[in-house]
Design goal:
Largest sheet: 2 strands, antiparallel
Shape: globular
Radius of gyration: 20 Å
Order of helices and strands: HHHHHHHEHEEHHHHEHHH
Helix content: over 70%
Oligomer: single chain
Strand order of the largest sheet: 1-4
Strand content: under 5%
Number of strands: 4
CATH topology: ABC transporter involved in vitamin B12 uptake, BtuC
Number of domains: 1
Distance between the termini: 25 Å
């Protein structure tokens, strides 16, 4: 057997991005453990990290589909905020969790659908459109709430709250279980289902995809609907976790979400991606600020180091892609 035919060599060749990001994750956590053992050898820190990174992780799953298309969505934090407000307002007014849930997910579905239709049927570039809708939906939230927060103390102690953000086996946050379940299910669709193949094909060469009978517009619409619904799910979970709604709800999600996708190896040019890489990217971005502070640096370093990590990752993947081609 030739060296180039060795199974391990073939695996590494076909999975450069997920292998690299996994190595980066392992190296980063090793630095954390060596530099701050009193923090990162404590089980409590991992429970805390799982509880907070789940929100951006759920958003990153949807963003992976959109970026694989060669598109971008910058409006999902605002969709998350508006969906969360709809749930909070409905629940505080009606007291019905199921009805409020339907309203919340309906908002995410509708706003994602509007993005997808405007991009595919009108022809507005996704980056331009979603910058506009990012401000539009956030502005609507501010108009609706007039700077006021909504406290959902009545949600505390209910079976719904335990289901959404309780602790499994007394340790693992339920929102992390939701994140894992969605990552596995949508990861399998992404890699093995016909729809995932259509997403990858559309992102790689939309013209060729249309020639073989793929409705590329419908594929794109479905992906924007998906990230809209996932934004609503993330908004609901973070709302249950905090038990209150603030006008800035979801605002901090843009950087860690897109960073996780890009660090994970999903190509900004479309046609290439890996859900495992996104998952590792979420673990990296979710721990970065905590790790920086634990190592003795101030939180002011977070954006600098996060930006450096994103730029380095994108350049590395671009170089690998050029080498392969």
């Amino acid at each position: 057997m030739m060296a180039s035919d060795h199974p391990i060599r073939r695996f590494l060749s076909r999975n450069r991005a997920p292998v690299l990001v996994t190595c980066l994750w392992a190296a980063l956590y090793l630095v954390y453990i060596i530099g701050a053992p009193q923090v990162f050898l404590s089980p409590g820190i991992y429970a805390a990290l799982m509880g907070t990174l789940a929100f951006s992780g759920i958003l990153a799953i949807g963003a992976t589909y959109v970026v694989t298309l060669g598109e971008i969505d910058l409006s999902f934090p605002s969709i998350m905020g508006l969906s969360a407000w709809v749930f909070a307002h409905s629940y505080a007014t009606l007291g019905s969790f199921p009805l409020s849930l339907v309203f919340c997910l309906g908002v995410g579905f509708t706003l994602g659908l509007l993005n997808g239709l405007a991009i595919t049927k009108v022809g507005v570039p996704s980056i331009v459109l979603t910058i506009g809708t990012m401000f539009l939906w956030r502005g609507l939230v501010h108009v609706l709430v007039q700077g006021q927060s909504i406290v959902l103390s009545q949600l505390d102690g209910t079976v719904w709250n335990a289901l959404l953000v309780g602790r499994v086996a007394g340790y693992v946050p339920a929102q992390f279980i939701w994140f894992l379940a969605l990552a596995v299910a949508l990861g399998l669709v992404y890699r093995y289902h016909r729809f995932g193949s259509h997403v990858l094909f559309t992102g790689d060469d939309a013209t060729s995809a249309r020639m073989v009978g793929i409705d590329t517009d419908l594929v794109k619409i479905k992906c924007f609907v998906l990230i809209g619904v996932l934004a609503a799910v993330a908004g609901l979970l973070s709302l249950a976790f905090n038990q209150s709604f603030f006008p800035s709800h979801g605002d901090s999600m843009l950087l860690p979400t897109l960073a996780a996708v890009f660090i994970g190896g999903t190509s900004v040019f479309g046609g290439k991606g890996t859900m495992w890489g996104t998952f590792m990217g979420v673990l990296i971005m979710g721990s970065l600020e905590t790790g920086i502070v634990a190592l003795g640096l101030t939180g002011f370093w977070y954006q600098f180091i996060a930006g450096l990590t994103i730029v380095a990752s994108v350049i590395l993947y671009a170089l690998l892609l050029r080498k392969v081609n």
